[in-house]
Amino acid sequence: MNQFLSNKIIAGIVAVALLVGVGVLISSGDTSSTTRNAALVVATPCTKPGQVTKVSKQSVVCATTNTGSLWYATMKAKGKAQACKSPGVIRKKSKIVWVCGVVKKKKLWQATQPLPPAVVASITVIEPGATQPTPALDSTQVATPDVPINADNTVLADPQIPDDKIVTQVIEDVTTPTVAPTSTTSTTSTTIPLTCATGGTCVIGDTGPGGGKVFYDAGATKPWGRYLEAAPTDYKEEITDERATAQWGCFAVLVPGTSLEIGTGRANTKIITDKLCIGTDTRPIAASIAKTYNGGGKTDWFLPSRDELNELCKYARTQTTGTSSVICNNSGSLRDGFADSAYWSSSGYSEYSAWHQYFNTGPRYANFKSLTLYVRPVRAF
Q: Which of 3-17, 89-103, 139-153 has the highest mean pLDDT?
C-alpha cells in the first residue's frame, strides 16, 4: 500500500472518531452550545437568561421566572425592535409577554407566548449538579411560529400605552389561573404549601393576611369567616407615634343594634360609625379608629365585639382561646405589646355606657362611653 493511500485511510479514521466524539457530547446532556440547546424545549430549564436560540426551527428565549430560568417561544413582532436593559426580564404590554433577549450582542425585547397553565403545573426545577433532561419537542407546548398578530414593537415603544404588568418573575399569562410554584429535588416535585397569610390553614399565633396575629379560630367557616386576627399594635397618635387612648363616643346617644357575640364586631363598628357620633373631645372615637386602620393593605378592620374582645384578652394573656363562655383572667403574662389596662369593645350597653375589658385582671364591664381606653383593631377572614 503506497504512502498516499495510507494517509487517506488514517485521515478517514480520525474523521470518524471526531464525529463519534461529537455524538457522545450531544447525547450526554451537555447543553452549553447552540447546537446542544436544540434539545431543550419550551418550559424546560435554561441556564443563561436572555439567550436566544432555535428549537426545531422555533426561536426561543431564556426568561427569568419564579421557578428558575425557563425557555419561552418567541414570535415575530411588527415595527422596529426595542432595546431592553436586563436579559431574561419579563414584561407584559397589550396582552403580549415580552422577554429581554440578547441578539447579536444587542439587548432587545422578544415577543413571546405565555406558558400554558398545564405546562406551568408540570414544570420540574432541576437542582444544581443534577443532569438536565433533553425531552423531545412537544408541539402542544410551543407557540405557533411567525405569528405577528398583536405583537407590535410600536405599541411596546409608545409611552402613552401603559404596561399590563412589569415583572421579573412570571411563568404564565396573568389572565390564566395562578399555579403554585413548585420546589423539587432532582427526582421529586412537591408543591409549596400555602401559609396562613396566603390563604392556607391558620393556627393561633400565626401571622394573618393583614399582618396581625391570629387569636381566634372558629374551627369551620362561618358567615363572617373563620379566623380573627388582631393588629400588631394598639392605636397610636400619628404625630408622636405613641400609644394613645380614645373614647367610645356617642355619650348620651342610644346606638341600637350592636351585638355581643363573636362575628358581630364588623357590623357593630359600621352601626357606630354610621351614627356619626363624636366624643366629648376632638379626637376620633374608638370605632372610627378601628375602621380606618389599613394594616396589611386591608380595609376591613373593626372594633371587636364584647365576646371577640374576650378572646383577644385570653390570647394576650397566653390563655387558651376558642370557648366564649370562658372569661379572661389575670393568669399568664401579656404578649404582643398589649397594655396592662382596659380596651374598648364595639358592643354598646346604654345611652351612656358600653362594654370594655381589663386586660390586666380580666373582667369586663359596661362603663361610661366618655372614658378614654385603648383600641386594638381586629379583622375576620
A: 89-103
Domain that holds residue 91: 36-191
C-alpha cell at 20: 463519534
**Mind listing the pLDDT tens digit for each residue in 74-95?**
988 888 999 998 898 898 888 8
Q: Are residues 42 and 185 in the same domain?
A: yes
Of 282 and 325, more confident: 325
Q: What is the pLDDT of residue 162?
A: 84
Q: Is residue 151 part of a domain?
A: yes
Give the pLDDT of residue 182.
Answer: 43
Give the total number of structural domains in the chain. 2
Q: Is residue 120 part of a domain?
A: yes
| Confidence label for 29 from pLDDT (cuts 50, 70 and 90) | very low
Rounded CA separation 360/371 (Å) = 17
Band the pLDDT of 155: cuts 50, 70, 90. confident
